[in-house]
Amino acid sequence: MPEMDGYEVCLTLKGATDTNNIPIIFLTGRTSAEDEAHGRMIGAIDYITKPIDADLVLARIASHLAAIKMNDIREK
């Protein structure tokens, strides 16, 4: 059993000033709507359930990176 689950890792990263801006995507076997809502509520930008489709993961990462880039451009 791991010392921390993904939710705890997310909370730890989001709670520290030097890591709170790291985008987090959950890749998980937990498939309930409640689990996804909890992951997003604590700071994940996405929640992908198993079985993992590599093309889907890459598309979501590309989408999030594009959104972050657009946000950075707007802030300048």
UniProtKB/TrEMBL annotation:
InterPro entries under this entry? Answer: CheY-like_superfamily, Sig_transdc_resp-reg_receiver
Q: Which UniProt keywords apply?
A: Hydrolase, Phosphoprotein
Q: Which SUPFAM superfamilies match?
A: CheY-like
Domain of life, source organism: Bacteria
Q: Name one Pfam family in it.
A: Response_reg
Enzyme category, top tier: hydrolase
What are the GO MF terms of this UniProt record? hydrolase activity; phosphorelay sensor kinase activity
EC assignment:
3.1.4.-
Positions of the Response regulatory domain: 1-65
Task: Please report the name of this protein according to its UniProt entry.
Answer: Putative cyclic di-GMP phosphodiesterase
